[in-house]
């Protein structure tokens, strides 16, 4: 970008008054030259600290404190008042990588603006407020039980690669700019997709070379070679007996020698520690640090007590050479110089991005556009959708209907405003014509009758709350108050727990008494981000230290006439937003009789359910039936929701089911109890508006499934088995419920016969052909033309695999001739003979249509011939 170079030269000439005593301080030199000079001036102890994700300042050389760990999965994470876009798996359903680029270009603008605002305000450079963002997650979503699959771009290597490349380009900025906008990160390298509960110990020692090269590595290779991603994060588990962050094969032979990667390798957080605490491949922290460096891990992420701080000791013992450490530190410093982080803001164009871009109207519109494009219509019996806005009455039910955080997904920031699905529906239908009821919980088949009205202390109702502006309940009391409603406190949006209480580094105590009026079993319901400990009569019943709020239920029997002193100790931890929720009372089984009576005279019901990031996510202490550690053990919709939908159908209602989830759910019963099913993922800050736009026909859905929706868990192999046989549309022999690439529209399309100029092409040449696509319905709409390929004589290869796609927008009756080009590398498959990816001469079958289902595809064959020498 010429404008960046011009601005840089101008500012350098007009503002060059800062000291340049050493070459590393000279912005005119290359990042490599500056890093080479600076590393020569560092002590071994200083080098070690620079290789930690929390890198301490080195004042004598003018090096500032720097944090490598920020997140930007779908917007700037772990910060307030930013734009929150749909979760990546929802973005993948759009099959729109051009829009993905725009979203991450907008995200990088917001990160830069937030970062420089914080620095100018004198704030500390802390975790989650950095120019290094550990995004995107390009692991293959091979099993729907994995709770983190929502962070990925689905189950297909080609789709994941296309999306991931645009994420990186949007985050890092133009390659011809002097400075990188941000440093993006391809994670988690390699072969990682759950389970969460065993990721620190799992050893993947039977993965075929075919699965490795055709499924698990392509996206990483694309991000390295096609997007020049500046960071790669190595994963927790072992591959062929070696931890990924200590694997010479992964980090040297493949990543650097074969792919030519020149930049940083960062560890997943705690992965080096796992060498001696979980994998038992190192005897202690010193050996683990040395092993990580020798293998090629340049930066260690660790919650505290970094093992890399022990590298000087490792050098003394001869476990690693200082020259090896120098190579790693040069990469670290080169990355920082590329950001301009060590230069004055005045000469870094990205530092001039105004804070007005943050959650600007332009960015809000991008969030809404992607949310709309992610909407995937799976069922529409008798064309019940779109709904008529003049309906006399309509019911909006379900645990996700009016839930803001559900829409945010995971690894998220907090938006300025969120449009819930109920809010969106209110924009279409007068509020007095809407009957809203939560109807049921996400999972629990009981409701809590709160006993908050029965508690008190010091002659006052509720909990007595005491606050300190220290993390350990010491020093002067800052505030005392009484809380008479169930606790729901948060610092999100810069809200104080109480007047005068800091947003960080504070602690609190909540105390009350309850006298039981009968023998019964009650339940404590709680969740917290931070330190939480529950005491009854001085005895600790539960203690957690969570980085997000996860719901928990603890049964507790009480005896008539006995008084129970209840105390909660809370403390804000690390850089996490503080959050505390607490209620207690009697649990009552769900009975839908009252709900059905409330809906008398209402024919149409919108039920908004599914899952949320309270249930699926990263390494979560959630163990409801069907859920374990953030993952699932079965994929059916939770029973309480299934039962509610059945009760609605038995009552004669027309049921539209809006399913929120970051993963596939086995919806076989729901195809019978529901007239329409809309898969709406986690739609971000405008997700509710997008749902309403689709339900009421103001937007014609065009989303396609980026993952297979299996019928039930019996169609899945063992979760810890990473062999692809039988998994995903590429290898599945049974019929799933909804296939990869499937999605309905309110109009109809006809995909005609392809015009293929040549049925034989030379190896190394692209394949070009033309496909006519026509809108045969009465609404404008978008079809997604999908191209799949199979090597005809390859019995062990994929049944078919995606190699190209195009979005085609058409007016009613309009037809377009769509030109398709399949790149030469698309013909590469793993060669058992050559032990590498190769485009072998022979016959290839080309499939084209609007889903991966054979019934939706047409086909022709092409012969790939060897070039004559």
The strand count comes to: 38
Query: Which oligomeric form is depicted?
Result: single chain
Task: Predict the CATH topology of the largest domain.
Answer: TIM Barrel
N-to-C terminal Cα separation, in Å?
42 Å
- Percent strand: 15-25%
Query: What would CATH call the homologous superfamily of the largest domain?
Result: Glycoside hydrolase, family 3, N-terminal domain
How many helices? The count is: 21
Shape: globular
List key phrases describing it:
globular; 21 helices; xylan 1,4-beta-xylosidase activity; 12-stranded antiparallel sheet; disordered N terminus; Rossmann fold; alpha-L-arabinofuranosidase activity; alpha+beta; Jelly Rolls; single chain; 38 strands; Glyco_hydro_3_N_sf; hydrolase; Glycosyl hydrolase; 6-stranded mixed sheet; TIM Barrel; 869 residues
